[in-house]
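G., the chain you wanted modeled:
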Amino acid sequence: MPGLTDRGIAEVGHGGSTDVELPKVVSLFSGAGGLDHGYHSVGFPLVLAVDSSRFAIKTHKRNFPSTTSVADDLISMQPEGVLKCLANRLSQGDSIGIIGGPPCQGFSRANTGSKPDDPRNKLPTLYLEIIEALQTKYDVRFVIFENVQGIRDAKHSQVFNAILDKFASLGLSAKVEEHSALDYGVAQTRNRVIISAFASAEESDAFRPAKIRSDRLTVRDRIAGLPEPVYFSRAIDPADIPFHPNHWTMKPVSKRFRDPDGAGSSGRSFRRLDWDKPSPTVAYGHREIHVHPSGTRRLSIYEAMLLQGFPHDFVLEGTLSAQVEQISNAVPPPVALALAEATAAALNYSTAQSMPRQLQG
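Predicted structure as tokens:
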């Protein structure tokens, strides 16, 4: 990818001699900031993040202190509320990018009772309405829309086709791709749909996330050798947890934990990880955190963070259950990094191609 300066400026590639400032980023449905982490790491200025979870926003504030992180419901805010939040943070005409993953429970294949008319299926429409509103004041250069594979299932085809039609009506060239976390160095079999949309067809075509070849994508590679976690209690203060503030888990009370082979490899409630395989998708329901390969306890939050590709210095805030939700909803940061690098390269590619011939060397 192009080189980055300390100011978050990416050098134009393809022989260009002029630097191009990366667009400022607005993150909607941000959660704890897994997707944001990738764009922040590449140098995109992250100006606003919005999520309805106050614990997720507390996490966001801790890890992205220079960003305005807002705990509010976008359904209540509506596009006007987002514009109001940005009024003192952006100037009219500023170049921006919008990233996010509208909550996907309505499309999830794990939700066997999902229906096309699930109210949560309207959140992508809200996301697009906010994009449309932002276009009235700012130069929207790109949009990243992340969701589960189920959004492309036949029963949701009307909703999905409407999403693509809306991108086209907004003048954004959209491309739909499925990405596996395994392809980006994450030891997890997590597959997601990414809609990338750019202001030009050339930029859209140039958006090509680079895959990483690795033979070290097992649970053992990520969490072997860690000290034992602390068991949750109502009196515990996460600040007092040794090694890492998120290295805690539920106390094993089921009889199945008394026998190392008591937790099998199937079933949602007692899905035991294999040391020498990648983790299944890190997405947990209530008391469904995957079982540690030892079979004697569930994973700690920190172990799940490592399986998601979060760095050691990233810390989740909130109660244990709030942290479970945050880690389950997060985009793995290595995947986000690949998307961000591809975004920067695509934008620079377009700029370099549009420059006068003499400036291209």
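The mean pLDDT is 86.

Shout if anything looks off.
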